[in-house]
């Protein structure tokens, strides 16, 4: 089964690539700079392309079960906002016949109806709004775009904070309240990969912690 990873050269994206083999997936990494993946498993197909190039994405996405995104806050520093790229990504997915988008949101930045965040998580969100308003607005816009369309099924994981790289498998997903205030990047990658074939969280944005 083929999956495509975008944002694959970031910290979480690299975990997605390294763990995907254990799930038995045929993995394509769609990236701007393939040289950043020279030390990643050779079984991965690396395609160079821009997330603004619909035709290139359609070719790369063809035959995939899902597109997984490692795009996060860091990407705001070096290029277009991820939410600004999302409409083209979704259009390319539709043209390529890919019906599932799986990505990373933010439990601190994004509040949804029914949320019961602990005080500390609310405080982190307010602090983030002060110092990274661009990132907060971007993550909120991402949810609006996905929930406002009905062609592509989606899952967004909402970690309050990404911390560490250990794969523990001890995380939990909860729709309204995070169990902890942090989760490792490896555990988030594990959760995202499990959504390729699971329908449990389709069209939802659970906290993962």
Sheet with the most strands: spatial strand order: 3-2-1-4-5-6
Quick one: biggest sheet? 6 strands, parallel
What is the string of helix and strand elements?
Answer: EHEEHEHEHHEEHE
Give the helix proportion (percent range).
25-40%
Average pLDDT, rounded to a whole number, is 91
Distance between the termini: 28 Å
- How much beta, percentage-wise? 15-25%
Categorize the overall geometry.
globular
Instruction: Quickly name the level 1 CATH class.
Output: Alpha Beta
Structural class: alpha/beta
CATH architecture: 3-Layer(aba) Sandwich
Q: How many independent structural domains?
A: 1
CATH superfamily: NAD(P)-binding Rossmann-like Domain
Low-pLDDT runs:
none
Number of helices: 6
Q: What value does the Rg take, in angstroms?
A: 16 Å
* CATH topology tier name: Rossmann fold
Describe this structure in words.
By secondary structure, the chain is α/β, with parallel strands linked by helices. The chain has a single domain, classed as Rossmann fold. The chain is built from six helices and eight strands. The protein has helices spanning 11-20, 54-61, 82-96, 119-131, 133-147, 185-194, and strands at 2-6, 26-31, 45-48, 64-69, 100-104, 153-157, 173-174, 207-208. A six-stranded parallel beta sheet has the order 3-2-1-4-5-6, sandwiched between helices. A two-stranded antiparallel ribbon has the order 7-8. Helix 3 (82-96) links the parallel strand 4 and strand 5 (100-104). Helix 3 packs parallel to helix 5 (133-147) and helix 4 packs across helix 5. Residues 7-198 form the NAD(P)-binding domain. GO terms for molecular function: biliverdin reductase [NAD(P)H] activity; riboflavin reductase (NADPH) activity. It holds the Pfam family NAD_binding_10.
